[in-house]
Amino acid sequence: MKPTVLILCTGNSCRSHMAEGILRAAAGDALDVQSAGSKPAGYVHPLAIRALAEIGIDISTHHSKHLDEFLSSDIETVITVCGNADQVCPMFPGQMNRHHWGFDDPAHATGSEDEQMTVFRRVRDEIKRVFDAYAAGRRDALAQPALP
């Protein structure tokens, strides 16, 4: 069974979904990647969907979920991508790792749609750098033979 990585944010509408899509694409079938929020917004932000579509990742079928849906799941790693989620994050059964990598919330971007997309692209690219590196490290670790 592949390890489950749960990416948490407050609203589960932008950053956590972008990170989920990017990590799922980067990790291939090595990890089961999910995302959730402590106070789910109930939707995935259309500009987050668009920003990922620009780099060939489709998150249009994602939906906003509450972290409570995963409390009885075997979560190996929890990654929080906003400060509030990091503060309210519970421990999950079987959890071995926890990381916090905070990113600006692009949902707070103002101005025209083009100006907002500039913010979404910047945050997407920051998330992609971090999660591509994380996926590469995980793939390398999973490929290593277990020590006797």
UniProtKB/TrEMBL annotation:
SUPFAM superfamilies given in the database record: Phosphotyrosine protein phosphatases I (SSF52788)
Residue stretches making up the Phosphotyrosine protein phosphatase I domain: 3-137
Record flagged with keyword Kinase: no
Swiss-Prot/TrEMBL keywords: Arsenical resistance
SMART domains noted in UniProt: LMWPc
PANTHER family: ARSENATE REDUCTASE
Protein's UniProt name: Arsenate reductase ArsC
Source species of the chain: Luteolibacter arcticus
